[in-house]
Amino acid sequence: MKKENDTEFQALTIIAEMVMSFKQLHVLNISMKDRKELQFVRTSLEKVIHDNGYQMTYDKNIKYNIIKL
Fold first, then answer.
1. Interval 42-65 mean pLDDT
2. Cys-Cys with 16: which of 3, 30, 54, 65 at CB 3.0–4.6 Å?
3. Is the pLDDT of residue 56 over 80?
4. Nearest CA to 68 among 14, 13, 22?
5. In terms of domain of life, where is this protein from (predicted)?
6. Rounded to an integer, what distance in angstroms lies between the CA atom of residue 43 and that of residue 64?
7. CA distance 57 to 69
8. CA of 28: how far to CAs of 32, 33, 35, in Å?
9. Is the per-residue pLDDT at 20 higher than 90?
10. Helices 9-21 & 32-51, crossing angle to 10 degrees?
């Protein structure tokens, strides 16, 4: 049974898409200060996914970017 405060799976998949989009930044010039901030944001997004019982997957053969732990 889903708790009222559980994060919806669809929200987690959108967050996972955000995390995936960070890989596009590695080829661009970004200041060290901004790079640190972006890493913090990425880590925070990944923590939300993990805290809800999922983990990121980078396997393109899987429909969603997250899998249940």
1. 93
2. 65
3. yes
4. 13
5. Bacteria
6. 19
7. 11
8. 12, 14, 11
9. yes
10. 150
Nearest to 19 by CA among 1, 54, 45: 45
Q: Confidence band (pLDDT; 50, 70, 90) for 63?
A: confident
* Cβ-count burial 59-68 (b if 16+ within 10 Å, e if not): eeeeeebbee
Q: By three-state DSSP, how is residue 62 classified? A: coil
Long-range Cβ pairs for the range 36-41 (8 Å, 24+):
none
> What number of other Cβ atoms are within 10 A of residue 44's Cβ?
11
Predicted TM-score (pTM) of the model is 0.85
| Residue among 34, 10, 22 at smallest CA distance from 58 | 22
